[in-house]
């Protein structure tokens, strides 16, 4: 089928029919959430990122419109502080739909977010209708393809989880149409426009779409224009569109590229270490074609088109010479789906998630259109091909059903059979209005898929959504009301306790609503120096997108970050795992739960344990900026252990280069090694470097023999207990070994008289369990149990997208003990396998020496702090040469003046902003501008001039013709 740019008649009716049809689809896609009392706001990314950032960006736009020229490049509220451009450019700046928020009042932002989500989906279908109108297709055939394109597993997920991922579904059809226009000798200007939109929308999606556009261009030329194309003229137009769009978009692209290269995303493990996907991926991939509503499979691949899509694939592959572009592109897609490296390539060399599959829905929907267009003229032979293929496919689906026992495939299979029957009826009974019948079936199929995905206890997307009014309740009660009355100054920060949730349910990794400055942050781009700092100190909670979290509740790190207040839920996990020096400052109104967590010996209400939110305060928080005259050079710093590096933050400043006039830091012997022995509950000593864990009920005790000594106990009193792992290596058992040990353990448990162990059944049961859970895989937990709760080193599964990290070392904070340290800890790995663990246990002494160092730091704080847009300033008097250091993340965008004279910033403590100061009284002012923005703006200005000149030339040439 060929593109035609001849104006089609009846377009107004076509778009009206699509609009009416979309009302039905929208009711199916979003209606379940409304009926069940939910919103379209996901309790993860939408709660933490998309919605609050939309609110913030709208406020920034209104501020800019009222005061043109006032641009805010630095936010003090996003974690420790960050470049706002690097955040907004990923989520909002290039998203044209985000600007619809300006049409809503500030109080209706949750409504705006949800309405915009529906508008996005409407535009997805609109883009396909525009694309398909360029073919000789009947109107209702176009609508059938539109349904197939709009309602699929990827979009059902993206519409409520990652709304801006709907944009490439709008852009890709437009890109294809405009490339085709150029190939047919038409103007390059429309392609220039859509390329520009692509580049400014989101740099990651532009990368994916750019590869898709190039692939389409190559395949289209190879299969259709190979001998007829004017290559020189066409390449000139394509080059013009590409270069012009890059020039115009440079104001966003240049700083974005710099932000990516200076982020924690660089250096990630390729494909999360996967060479092949887990076995269950290959087993269930055929099922995913017509059933993609499972949340757990979304990481790997989301297909889930309407059932007639399978028949469409069979049909076009029965005619590969007639449809070479579709058959080649879809065959390549299938091969790509089988290789993790492909997914990793499209994900910027990181995880192996196949998000690139957003590109294949266009050829899939086009295949559906071709099937529907040709259906009235099918031959008997064609229908039998469809029959045989369907029987084979159903056999595969039945086999996976018996294996996985998921009933979610029932309705897609029913619609597959109904679709096939409809094709028979259309062909042999010459049914009136065949397009209407097929459209009705496809609409019902799509509607059911959408409802099933959202429906409680089915696809269960509703379980991941916020309830109506919950977003407002969360933002109002994030800290249990204990944030009221606190200053909103960026001079100090707040945090919570690890694993301790004040708000029940969703994890809250960002705070963009309370006005306080929480150290936790969750964004796609994070400062690479901050990542290096947390890696060097082996912050056990570090992840590329969430570099700090609660700093594993480590005292010195919290103090260094300036955490003055901690908020704790009394009935939550780790509620007593408080860093040293934090004291109870305020509590919320107590609530009594009579049924849970109460002592059995209670005889009156006074003896019951109340539930409340608690606010703890410390007097040991470091100032935001402070002077240090004692230095630690890089070679000395590298020799320190992670706990020693943390402790050294109070003793001096880590810098490289010039240290003239400064003194070397005195590092106190504040980190004390503790000898440890690992003993099994089978009473045998275990070598942790050769730990073969074969029984899931086996536990270990990490014993500290030195704690038997009164003198040693006294020496380490008032310490934070750390386990420093220099090596963590886990080798999972093979499937065969895993099943062997599971069977052995099961047989050992059958110890009652008359017990019979069914070898054959249990072997199948364990094999099935491990296949469905992706075994063998590298994930594990090392769990250590203390009076504070459970501290764990966690290796995530390889199907974790942006939060994956390969764990090879780490420092685990067990907690701060104001009195004696424990004599033992309980240790239990989470999975069978071989562990190689090399570690030492240390006590980080937090005594009078530490307090004196903190007081000296506080005494040398930058005073008279003033915060303004992109600026912080203050005064300080220094008795000698030293460094003004801080906990403000370093960036090349920072500039500094001392007493009005520009000087050079320095990177201190690996990751933070500083400046060298001589003796004397100084007024210091730091200002910030997004790196690369000025250069990008100049390039874009050149691009606009170039575009204007090219447009003028085009108009002159056109006029002369």
Secondary-structure-based class equals alpha+beta
**Uncertain spans, ≥5 residues at pLDDT below 50?**
none
Distance between the termini: 32 Å
Main sheet, how many strands, which sense, barrel?
6 strands, antiparallel
Mind telling me the C-alpha Rg? 31 Å
Q: Would you count the extended β strands for me?
A: 31
**Mean pLDDT reading:** 93
Cross-sheet strand order for the largest sheet: 15-14-17-22-19-20
Shape: globular
Describe this structure in words.
There is one protein chain. The chain is of the alpha+beta class. The protein has a 6-stranded antiparallel beta sheet with strand order 15-14-17-22-19-20, with no helix packed on it. Strands 13, 16, 18, 21 and 23 form a 5-stranded antiparallel beta sheet that branches. The protein has a 5-stranded antiparallel beta sheet with strand order 24-25-31-27-28, with no helix packed on it. Helix 5 runs parallel beside helix 18 (434-454) and helix 25 crosses helix 26 (759-772). The chain is globular. The mean pLDDT is 93.
